Amino acid sequence: MTAPRSVRLLLIAEAANPEWVSVPLVGWSMARALAARHQAHIVTQLRNREAFLRAGLIEGQEFTAIDTEAIDGRVWRMAKALRLGEKGAWQALTALSSLTYRYFERQVWRRFGPQIEAGAFDIVHRITPLTPTAVSTLAPRCRQAGVGFVLGPLNGGAPWPKGFAGAQRREREFLMPLRQAYKLQPGYRAMLAASDLILCGSRDTQGDIPAAYQGKTRLMAENGIDLARFPEPPPRVPSQVLRACFVGRLVPYKGCDMVLEAALPYLATGQMVLDIAGTGPEEQRLRDYVAAQGLGAAVRFHGWVDHRKVREIFAGADLFTFPSIREFGGGVVLEAMACRCVPVVADHAGPSELVDAAVGYKLPVSGGRAGLIEALRAQIGAVLADRARLTQQAETGYRRVLEQYTWQAKAETITRLYAEALPRLF
């Protein structure tokens, strides 16, 4: 089959930064991969300008930075106050930061509206924000101008599983009962109606799209792997002692405390060691638990580490123990697989859609916190009893990343979806 031709793209990536992680890194990586495949111009927020310049992009030619700091600063201060410091309430932060996005798009239209109306672009693709709560006013304007509009990847909306009320309280997620209220925002349905293609990063998000627009949705994980950041790791060689790791922010929903409780008998008897990379409000509580249980020789805390150190930790581990119960994307799971490290994840939300029996293990969440800990303990025991299987899973996971999850592969997938949604352009 002939590959679709190149088209002219205006890529809206309000959050896009090669020097950061999470959503900004997704925005940067996807925009750059698409720009390498097509004739593209990236629009981002002013806070990312210096990082774009350091990466060698030419301002005005390859990207434009939009200044919305006057509005953003006030809203971020309000969001920080509602979060009560740095201890949770991510939904409150997302809800408030979504308010600034309308202003950002208004500035984008002032700058690029005349070019869009003149047909300078074939497709306007809003990559970030990833949250479906941020309404795009560009979509109906593009539809009126006869220019294709692509939304996404959108992600979010995964419910808290039952039986984890303690973690939810510690995260201060007090807006959960109002989660669906974002659909009542002015312009929400107009955005969906005017979109030609809606990329959804998870089944939860896809299922949240109203039925009238389901035909426009396509499922595509938003995360990918940059092979420059993750060069080929050495082949997996089973060790006598099971080497496990946890990589992520030390916050309640990511479940590092559950890893420690589940692994306690194996850590205490020397059958397993655990590396913990990350920092956060739970760190001292976790350190106290390790000290109280006398696990200092088996558990090592690394604190915050950069990507190079993360690669080393994954490459030195047999198992990535990550029972996060509210993970939308799960890019860290792909990073583990890219390092031939076998993931163990909760069978809920984003990570569960990246893992199957060929590459790792999924743990049921139906039994609540106690059930998940028991399932993880049993899975570690099963791995210890059959170490040879890890080698095959590690290799299969690595090959899958190369075939499906590099940013180049994802740019080709998105291009095919462009062609399906907008055949007149191809």
What does this structure look like?
The two termini are 13 Å apart. The protein is built from 16 helices and 13 strands. Strands 3-2-1-4-5-6-7 form a seven-stranded parallel beta sheet, with helices on both faces. The protein folds into two domains: 237 residues, Glycogen Phosphorylase B (Rossmann fold), CATH 3.40.50; 163 residues, Rossmann fold, CATH 3.40.50.
**Strand portion:** 15-25%
Specify the CATH architecture of the largest domain: 3-Layer(aba) Sandwich
Write down the Rg.
22 Å
Assign the structural class, choosing from mainly alpha, mainly beta, alpha/beta, alpha+beta, or little secondary structure: alpha/beta
Total strands: the figure is 13
The CATH class of the largest domain is identified as Alpha Beta
The strand line-up of the biggest sheet is: 3-2-1-4-5-6-7
Shape: globular
User: H/E series, N to C?
Assistant: EHEHEHHEHEHHEHEEHEHEHEHEHEHHH
What portion of residues is helical? 40-55%
Largest sheet: 7 strands, parallel
CATH superfamily of the largest domain: Glycogen Phosphorylase B
End-to-end C-alpha gap: 13 Å
User: What is the tally of helical segments?
Assistant: 16
Count of domain modules: 2
**Which segments are poorly predicted (pLDDT under 50) over 5 or more consecutive residues?**
84-90
Overall mean pLDDT: 91
Q: Which fold name corresponds to the CATH topology of the largest domain?
A: Rossmann fold
GO molecular function, one term: glycosyltransferase activity
Protein name: Glycosyltransferase involved in cell wall bisynthesis
Organism: Gemmobacter aquatilis
Pfam family, one: Glycos_transf_1
